[in-house]
Specification:
Its cofactor is Mg(2+). With 368 residues, the protein is of the alpha+beta class. Helix content is 51%, strand content 10%. The protein has a 7-stranded mixed beta sheet. Strands 6-7 form a two-stranded antiparallel ribbon. A hairpin with a 6-residue loop joins strand 4 (48-50) and strand 5 (57-60). Helix 5 (133-144) packs parallel to helix 7 (174-187) and helix 14 (263-280) crosses helix 16 (301-311). The chain starts with a strand and ends with a helix. The model has no long low-confidence stretch (mean pLDDT 94).
């Protein structure tokens, strides 16, 4: 039994980047042997195990054979006779097909180090086209390493284009597509990811709200995204809203179900697309109260905070505008239904009086 560090950890170490997680491949073992050593099996389609102490993932060396269409149509062979080279051959890119032995030696049968040095993302072999998810993965890697000068090999781009033309991306579930989008948002270069997909004519399969994408949209979005600090706790949500900022409210209806987008992202995007124009120019007291009511400032103040946070990266919106609006919101929230009831109002009078006092407060604050 031999254990090798593989994939992203080896690649990023060679690039001098932080290692986020470590994955290992085990050659010459079986599920029974792994569990006897205290590993916990977690893989359903093929044997993946968690180390009893580090909780890192250890997968048995395997080969794959296409058995159907789409991402999950594979039959795996994980006999102990499978070699490391066979396991590495099934991987997507040469830069991800480098292994490291426990003595530090690198095993690189498909010239991944050379491609790293030349900043090329190249597929390992013809089996690349059997998995449509790899189109999104390569686009994501191209975006992640774009600032280092990486590009996709011409022959790999041709394979990816053929996969798109053959409708392979249509076999992916929306959940899988969203996971790749969310990872790309975390990398902070979603505009590069989008441009790669645009060149592949894949946007209609991945994010049809962006089918009109072009160089001008890329450049404008890039200028906005570079201003968003990665330390922002809502970093990915902010980037997502800027990415789809030109969407109409009609097209955004029900995107949680249509594209399997988490509600936090979907709500923030709809709030931004609906209210950004109102906030760009000094809103009237009535318009501001209407906005506060619409986003339920009274029970969900964090929703307005997030909206203002996204507005900060909108061209023409000044930080001072955001600070002032947050101050108005805070002052207006201090007027509660309980305070109105304490004044003797009841029934339908409560809401009308509440709106009147809130409107008065907004008007007063706006004139200061």
């Amino acid at each position: 039994m031999k254990v090798y560090l593989v994939g992203g950890a080896v690649r990023d170490a060679l690039l001098g980047r932080p290692i986020v997680e470590r994955d290992y491949v085990v050659v010459g073992s079986t599920p029974a042997k792994m569990m006897a050593l205290g590993y916990k099996q977690v893989g359903k389609d093929f044997p993946v195990f968690l180390h009893p102490v580090s909780q890192d993932e250890y997968a048995l060396a395997r080969t794959e054979r296409k058995s159907g269409q789409g991402y999950g149509g594979f039959i795996c062979d994980f006999e102990p006779t499978i070699t490391l080279e066979q396991d590495l051959y099934r991987r997507d890119l040469t830069v991800n097909a480098i292994a490291q032995a426990d003595n530090g030696n690198l095993i690189d049968p498909y010239n991944g180090q050379q491609d790293l040095n030349n900043k090329i993302l190249r597929h390992v072999g013809p089996a690349f086209c059997e998995d449509p998810l790899r189109v999104l993965r390569v686009a994501r890697f191209a975006a992640r390493y774009h600032h280092l000068g990486f590009c996709i090999a011409d022959e790999t781009m041709m394979l990816m284009k053929n996969m798109v033309q053959q409708g392979e991306l249509k076999t992916l579930t929306q959940e899988r597509v969203w996971l790749e989008i969310e990872k790309s948002l975390g990398d902070g270069a979603i505009e590069v990811f989008t441009t790669v997909l645009s060149h592949l004519n894949a946007l209609n399969d991945v994010q049809p709200l962006l089918v009109q994408w072009g160089d001008e949209a890329h450049q404008k979005l890039n200028a906005q995204l570079t201003q968003v600090p990665k330390s922002d706790p809502n970093y990915k949500v902010v980037l997502f809203c800027l990415w789809l900022q030109h969407s109409s409210l009609t097209t955004l209806a029900g995107i949680e179900q249509t594209f399997k987008i988490p509600s936090k992202y979907a709500i923030a995007l709809r709030d931004y697309c609906e209210h950004a124009a109102t906030l760009m120019t000094p809103p009237s007291p009535k318009d501001l109260l209407k906005l506060f009511n619409k986003i339920d400032l009274w029970r969900r103040p964090e929703r307005f905070e997030l909206l203002i946070n996204i507005m900060r990266f909108t061209v023409g919106f000044e930080k001072s505008q955001g600070d002032r609006l947050k101050s108005i919101a805070q002052n207006t929230r201090s007027i509660s239904a309980q305070a109105i009831i304490a004044k003797g109002f009841s029934g339908s009078e409560i809401k009308s009086q509440l709106d009147e006092e809130r409107l008065s407060q907004i008007t007063h604050t706006l004139t200061l």
